[in-house]
């Protein structure tokens, strides 16, 4: 049997990355292009040219299917609907457009679900049938796997852990509600905490010099250098996340929770309090059973690999 | 092909009910016996005799498998571990014991999971692939179905919605934690609310005459007769449940939530506030999409049917 390949496409707000991937998760050729175009048709045309060039440059490798990870992408409908971070408005039949342009079966899902599939096929979740992936980036994304299958829900919209109410009547969220997890436990959330605390706490901190233009990176660096306020901010962030995860475990009872994304890179600064508060809040039958892991997909290629896993 | 039958067994704290069931959910013969015995071996011996008598009385119908619903029963291990409401202590290899006694393949799970399977096979969830069943009884139980399969979790303990923290730092729960959903939204919970409110609210109410020996039935009756405090108690109970369900929907995005159990029988008294507060707290993409339903299994037979669904 000839070696089989699929195409993985990761559509981000600014950039689109794509790669031809083998069954073992080796990216044999990859490329990228801006996510832009006055119309989606223009963008698809540019994507088609870029992918055809990639195939030629790689020695006319052909792929049997394409998988696409994109914000707000729906597995069932194949559509992207009202994605706030993409340049096109309304409902876009993305799977159909890409399938017609590249002439292969094309499946789409959102970024966090693609990441979950990538971890299951090539990464930290190999062999697992029940796990959760949490992406801690600008927002909080999540993908749930139960019985070895991604949980899409009846409408394809399952897994919005970032919009579970972590703090009742808490911070206002752009979604229109209050207290959503991602207003606390994302790169955005930790910055809001720092800004609030610099106003309400009197203690000295390196962070005071950045006031009102603070970044998650600066909070990380301050905590690494032993800044007490920055350490407390991580502890608080981990507490909110740990509490929410304890409730989440009571629903799907996963073997592991796998973390991915910028804030997860703060390592023990965030993971130690998450583990502590999750365990402290778990129902007894779940205690000391859930493994917290980091993504094992190589950073630069994780999104392409995740998308490609969808295609197999 | 000869008509096929399975045996459904529901083991409750005081009573064990069992029945021989066909594929369409008709119980062709049924019986019951007390859940007692100095040892579990004695109980199994009594169960064996009772089932053999049932088979003979029904004209020597034979069944090809048995399904058992029991508190704290684990699908994967086939064991019951430390069930507070059963007369035997420690870990009991229930599936093995029943299988050996009856000489058929035997599968066990907890009551709420059995109910979910029963609804999927014979009841309100026929044809559904993604739904949740919630039992509002002495406690709150839940069973989650995703992609047409029951979510057991990696260890068989998934679906403990009754022990999600509904009110942070709320009422103490016998599980050792505080604010668990079932301390608010079960028959037990609504009674606690009434007792608390009679102390802290000054308004007149029929319920005052029952003070400190109040029952869920009395609160129901008072609300039905228009008692303002009783109506507020139902509104509050529905609010806590609706808020928690809104968060739960964000995880598995079910097509429907099916309610079962004593408190669910209060009908609109509880379901109207649940629907109102759930919708008010749902993320926009989920609004007006989740159907709230009542169990369609006949009350007396629901547990046997649920257990039998496990056997197919």
Explain how this protein is built.
2 copies of one chain form a homodimer. Chain A is an alpha/beta fold and 312 residues long. Chain A has 2 domains: 5-118 and 300-311, ATPase, nucleotide binding domain (Nucleotidyltransferase, domain 5, 2-Layer Sandwich), CATH 3.30.420.40; 128-294, ATPase, nucleotide binding domain (Nucleotidyltransferase, domain 5, 2-Layer Sandwich). Helices cover 36% and strands 20% of the residues of chain A. The first copy, chain A, has helices spanning 40-57, 94-102, 111-122, 187-200, 216-224, 228-252, 268-281, 302-311, and strands at 5-11, 15-22, 27-34, 65-69, 80-81, 91-92, 105-109, 131-136, 140-146, 149-150, 256-260, 291-294. The first copy, chain A, has a 5-stranded mixed sheet with strand order 3-2-1-4-7, sandwiched between helices. In chain A, strands 10-9-8-11-12 form a 5-stranded mixed sheet, covered by helices on one side. The radius of gyration of chain A is 20 Å and the shape is globular. Chain A binds chain B through residues 128-131, 144, 146-147, 149, 151-161, 163-165, 168, 175-177, 243, 246-248, 250-255, 281, 283-286, 289, and chain B through 128-131, 144, 146-147, 149, 151-161, 163-165, 167-168, 175-177, 243, 246-248, 250-255, 281, 283-286, 289.
């Amino acid at each position: 049997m000839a070696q089989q390949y699929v195409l993985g496409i990761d559509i981000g707000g600014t950039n689109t990355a794509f790669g031809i991937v083998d069954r073992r998760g080796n990216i044999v050729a990859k490329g990228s292009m801006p996510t832009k175009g006055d119309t989606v048709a223009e963008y698809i045309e540019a994507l088609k040219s870029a992918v055809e060039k990639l195939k030629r440059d790689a020695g006319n490798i052909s792929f049997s299917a394409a998988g696409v990870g994109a914000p707000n992408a729906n597995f069932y409908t194949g559509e992207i609907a009202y994605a706030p971070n993409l340049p096109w408005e309304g409902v876009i039949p993305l799977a159909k457009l890409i399938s017609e342009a590249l002439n292969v079966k094309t499946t789409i899902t959102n970024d966090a679900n693609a990441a979950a599939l990538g971890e299951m096929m090539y990464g930290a979740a190999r062999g697992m049938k029940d796990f959760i992936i949490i992406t801690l980036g600008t927002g909080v994304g999540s993908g749930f796997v139960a019985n070895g299958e991604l949980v899409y829900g009846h409408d394809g919209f399952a897994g919005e852990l970032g919009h579970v109410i972590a703090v009742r009547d808490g911070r206002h969220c752009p979604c229109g509600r209050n207290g959503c997890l991602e207003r606390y436990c994302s790169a955005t959330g930790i910055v809001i905490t720092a800004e609030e605390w610099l106003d309400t706490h009197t203690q000295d901190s390196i962070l005071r010099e950045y006031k009102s233009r603070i970044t998650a990176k600066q909070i990380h660096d301050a905590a690494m250098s032993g800044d007490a306020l920055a350490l407390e901010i991580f502890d608080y962030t981990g507490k909110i996340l740990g509490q929410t995860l304890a409730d989440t475990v009571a629903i799907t009872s996963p073997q592991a929770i796998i973390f991915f994304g910028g804030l997860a890179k703060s390592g023990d600064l965030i993971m130690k309090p998450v583990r502590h508060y999750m365990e402290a809040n778990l129902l007894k039958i779940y205690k000391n059973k859930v493994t917290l892991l980091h993504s094992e997909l190589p950073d630069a290629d994780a999104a392409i690999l995740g998308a490609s896993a969808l295609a197999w």
